[in-house]
């Protein structure tokens, strides 16, 4: 019989972000099944490649399932039931779970969500917290229901965001926090008290699209840098000159700079460029024209005077 503070766990996750969480759980609990998304074609050769969680589970020789669909999948539902999991944990798994599946483990499903719910429900809470200039985020352990991050809260912890963190550094910090919190929640599983979310306070964090990386020069310098931090992993920061796209890197706010029109290149600053925004200016350290290697921004500057403005068709 399973010990009350040592429940058997089924783990659902896919990307590298979930690996510290899986390893922390495995160190203290029996992981009876790992579930990841199916292998996908990757790279120029479109080689079929397992997601990081699946590859890690294979190395550890943990039981692994990669169902293509969940809804109406009686075979996978039976597999989850037969593995004997007392509880399931999801971490960046990437699929909505049907109610029939949620009911299989006797303690249901716990989800590690990288925001202080009900703020930033959805697929990209790390990125949108940065884009919108948040200075604090955190991790929520919640009981999963059939909605999009709408289930009751079980445990929460805030995390201050360092001013220079991009989505990459913030994800690392949140993965470490999530790993610690979920282990604590699993130890306390029989005594956790669910707290309903206040839906009136909910905000949303949808999947990023390529246009989310396009620079809005007409915004403030701080907003431009915040967006740059949020899209650092993907789709990265993109600007336009003469109809061509450039990838920009190393954007920071220039303190006390207020001259020029939005998008105007004001001057070189060593290897960097200073570019005016709607309010203030930013420093660009490197850029990469299409089909070329990254270069110091000032090297590219000689033939160009300004970046083109781009505005989204909807907010």
From TrEMBL:
Q: Which GO terms describe its cellular component?
A: cytosol
Q: Which Pfam families match?
A: Formyl_trans_C (PF02911), Formyl_trans_N (PF00551)
Domain of life of the organism encoding this protein: Bacteria
UniProt keyword Transferase present: yes
Q: Quick one: which residues bind (6S)-5,6,7,8-tetrahydrofolate?
A: 115-118
| Occurrences of domain Formyl transferase C-terminal (ranges) | 209-304
Q: Which UniProt keywords apply?
A: Protein biosynthesis, Transferase
What is catalysed by this protein?
L-methionyl-tRNA(fMet) + (6R)-10-formyltetrahydrofolate = N-formyl-L-methionyl-tRNA(fMet) + (6S)-5,6,7,8-tetrahydrofolate + H(+)
EC nos: 2.1.2.9
User: InterPro entries, from UniProt?
Assistant: Fmt, Formyl_trans_C, Formyl_transf_N, Formyl_transf_N_sf, Formyl_transferase-like_C_sf, GART_AS, Met-tRNA-FMT_C, Met-tRNA-FMT_N
The Swiss-Prot or TrEMBL record annotates one GO molecular function as:
methionyl-tRNA formyltransferase activity
The Formyl transferase N-terminal domain, residue ranges: 8-186
Name the job this protein performs. Attaches a formyl group to the free amino group of methionyl-tRNA(fMet). The formyl group appears to play a dual role in the initiator identity of N-formylmethionyl-tRNA by promoting its recognition by IF2 and preventing the misappropriation of this tRNA by the elongation apparatus.
Q: Which family does it belong to?
A: Belongs to the Fmt family.
Name used for this protein in its record: Methionyl-tRNA formyltransferase
Q: Which organism is it from?
A: Deinococcus puniceus
What is the name of the gene encoding this protein?
fmt
């Amino acid at each position: 019989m399973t010990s009350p503070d040592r429940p058997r766990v089924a783990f659902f996750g896919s990307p590298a972000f979930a690996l510290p969480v899986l390893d922390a759980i495995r160190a203290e609990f029996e992981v009876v099944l790992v579930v990841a998304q199916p292998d996908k074609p990757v790279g120029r050769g479109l080689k079929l490649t397992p997601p990081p969680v699946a590859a890690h589970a294979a190395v550890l020789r943990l039981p692994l399932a990669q169902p293509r669909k969940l809804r109406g999948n009686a075979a996978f539902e039976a597999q989850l039931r037969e593995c004997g999991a007392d509880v399931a944990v999801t971490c960046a798994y990437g699929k909505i779970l049907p109610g029939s599946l949620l009911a299989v483990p006797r303690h249901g499903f716990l989800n590690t969500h990288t925001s202080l719910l009900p703020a930033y429900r959805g697929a990209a809470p790390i990125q949108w917290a940065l884009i919108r200039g948040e200075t604090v985020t955190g991790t929520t352990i919640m009981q999963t229901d059939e909605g999009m991050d709408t289930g009751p809260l079980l445990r929460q912890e805030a995390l201050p965001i360092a001013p220079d963190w991009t989505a990459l550094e913030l994800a690392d910090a949140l993965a470490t926090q999530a790993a610690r919190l979920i282990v604590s929640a699993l130890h306390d599983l029989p005594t956790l008290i669910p707290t309903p979310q206040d839906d009136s306070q909910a905000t949303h964090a949808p999947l990023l699209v390529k246009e989310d990386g396009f620079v809005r020069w007409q915004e403030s310098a701080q907003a431009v840098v915040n967006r740059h931090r949020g899209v650092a992993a993907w789709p990265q920061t993109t600007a336009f000159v003469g109809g061509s796209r450039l990838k920009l890197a190393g954007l920071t706010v220039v303190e006390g700079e207020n001259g020029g029109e939005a998008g105007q290149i004001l001057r070189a600053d060593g290897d960097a460029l200073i570019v005016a925004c709607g309010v203030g200016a930013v420093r660009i350290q490197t850029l990469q024209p299409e089909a070329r290697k990254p270069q110091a921004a000032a090297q590219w500057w000689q033939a160009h005077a300004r970046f083109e403005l781009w505005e989204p068709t909807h907010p």
